[in-house]
Specification:
Length: about 200
Amino acid sequence: MGQKKKKKPSDPTDDSASTKTTSTTTSGFADKAYKNGMLRPLHSQPPTNLDDIRKRHAAPRATASPPESVYEGYANRVGKAGNEATVVVETSAKLLKEYDDKGYIRAFHRPFTNAPPNAGYNNGLSAPQPDFVEGLEKQEFRPFQVVDHVPGATLYQNDPFSLTLPQLAGEWKGPDGSMRVSRTAKRIRRSSHGLRAE
């Protein structure tokens, strides 16, 4: 008598902080992503600067290619990697650059805790958590307070050094990872930007 009726977690009027989300590896992720406006490759459009991208990729290298022995050593280490963590260690130093700029930072396998829920592209989906992401920390945007003008610009809540408006993010897959899951996640991420997936 006089007690409030407890709302079910799935009740849309529930104002609690907990929300049921779908991970990229969960059944039904692709359908939810589609309902959020993320297009499959057949329905996506190529970027408007595709010709420029193709010309840049076809241009000769500005520096000499490494000798074949470097490639063979790399292929040997990655080919024998027993798990995804080993692939990350063996490849990250070669693929990711180190920057002397103290305001340019990287983060690894960290969920975006400040992503606005149900922003359209992520309705009902888990927070993005790429294997790596890099860009400027929020202090680098001073005196402009980007966080006051762009919701979700900073990736991590309560972090004074949070990455803000990241410039690069990516995933690694090792011999124990599902390339099908990786390709699906890549297509969905690219599709969310209106790009045709490869």
